[in-house]
Amino acid sequence: MGLHPDLLDGLDDMGFLEATPIQAQAIPAALDGKDLLAVAQTGTGKTGAFLLPVLDRLCDGSSKYVDTLIITPTRELAMQIEGQIVGLSYYTGASSISVYGGRDGKALDQERKAMKLGVDLIVATPGRLKTHLQMGHLDLSKLKTLILDEADRMLDMGFIGDIMEIVKKLPASRQTLLFSATFPPKIQKLARELINEDRKVEIRIAISKPPEAIKQQAYYVDDRSKDALVAHLLRERTGLKRAIIFCNRKTKVRELTRWLKRKGLNVASVESGMDQKDREQVLRSFKNGTIQTVVATDVLSRGIDVKNIELVMNYDVPGGGEDYVHRIGRTARADTTGEAITLVSSRDKRDFKAIEELIGKKVDTPELPDWLKSKGGGDRRDDRRGGDRRGGNRNGGHRGGRNRGGDGGRGRGPKPQGGGNEKRSGNSNANSQSTKPAKGGE
After folding, report:
1. Confidence tier at 389 by pLDDT (50, 70, 90)
2. Which H or E element spans position 175?
3. At CA 101, angle to CA 104 and CA 295, rounded to 5?
4. pTM listed for this prediction
5. What confidence tier does 430 reach under pLDDT thresholds 50, 70, 90?
6. Which domains does the chain have, with CATH numbers?
7. Phi-psi category of residue 110: left, alpha or beta, with phi > 0 → left and psi -120 to 50 → alpha
8. Whole-number Å distance between alpha carbons of 157 and 132
C-alpha cells in the first residue's frame, strides 16, 4: 500500500502480516483523501483501517495543531484504540492522548495540560470532548481528519447531539471517516450530514457468520432457573480460564454477579455504576487470569481486546443477530476454538429464531440437566403461548432480547493502560506508560 517505512516497522512488531478486507479497501481511499462510509463488524480490522492512513501522513511531520480527532462511544474502546496507536506509532514520533470521563477534576486538568503542549491525535468519548471544548481547552480549527468509530453505538447511546455540537467546531474542509458495524437509516442520515458526497467512498463488508470454530448451543429454560443453570455450566467446565456472561441490563449484571459469588465462583462485574478504579482493576485481573468470569452488558461485546476467552454466555438473548455475532465473536479468535451458550426463555423464542435465520444455522439445543428438569425449569421449544404472562420473574429478570439498559454513561470510559506518545519522545498522556506495548491487534 506504499506505507511509510517507520509505520511498517510498527506493523511488523505488532505481528500484522496482511491487510484485512476492510483495510484493503479503506486504506488506499483514505490515503487518497476520500471521505469514507465503512460498514464492517468489530474484529475485522477497522481500527487499523482508519489509523494507518493518518499515521502514514504524520510520518512526514506534524504541526502544533491537532491533526486527527477520533470519537468513540466508550472508555473501553478509547483505551483499546489508544493501545493500537502507541504500538503502531512507536517509530513514527506521532503523539496522542485519550480523553474520557469517569475520573476526577485532576484527570481533566492533566488532559488540558497535555493538549496545551500539543498533540497529533486525540481519542475521545463525546461527553468528555464536549466538556473540553466548552471550557476552551481545545482548538480544532485546523483539524485534518475526523474519525467516528462505532457510530451506530454512539447513536444508540444518545450521543447524536454531542457529536453535532462537536462537528460545528471543525473545519468544513476536513476529511471524515465514518465506521459503523451496522447500517440502519439513522447512520445513513448521519453520513449525509457529515460526509462530502463529492469525495465519498462507501465500503460495506458483509456481516460474517460466526466462525465455525465456535461451538454454539442454546438452552431453552425458564427465567427463574437461569441463575442456577449458569452456575452449573460454569462449574462443569473445570478447566475454564476465561468466560464472559452478557446480560441486557446493568441491574441483572449486579444481581447475577452477587449470586454467583455466593455460590463460590470466581466472578466479577463490569458496568458503569462501578468506581472507576475498581472497573479498571477488574479488566486487568480478567486479562491476566486472576478473574475467571466477567458479567457485563454489551459494553464488552465490542470494547475490549482480551485473548483466549473460551466461553461466551448470553444470559439474555441479544436484541438482534448482529449483536449476537458481536458477542460470541469475543471467543474463537486468532485460530482458537470457543464455546457460545445462549439461555432462551419463552418470551425470547421469536427473537432467537430470527438470529438463527440471520446466521443461517440452527443452533444445537442440549437437554437441561435432570435435576433442573425435575424442578420444572425447562422451557419447551414448541411452546406457542407467545411468552410468559407473568410479566417478569421473581429473580429480578426482565424481558430478554431487547437491550433497554445498556452500559456506559455519556462520555465515560476507563483509564487506558497504555496512553499516548509524548511529542517526539515519551507520553503526552500524563497517565500513560512509556514502555512499548505487547504485540496485538483489533
Report:
1. very low
2. strand 175-180
3. 110
4. 0.63
5. very low
6. 5-204 (3.40.50.300), 214-373 (3.40.50.300)
7. alpha
8. 20
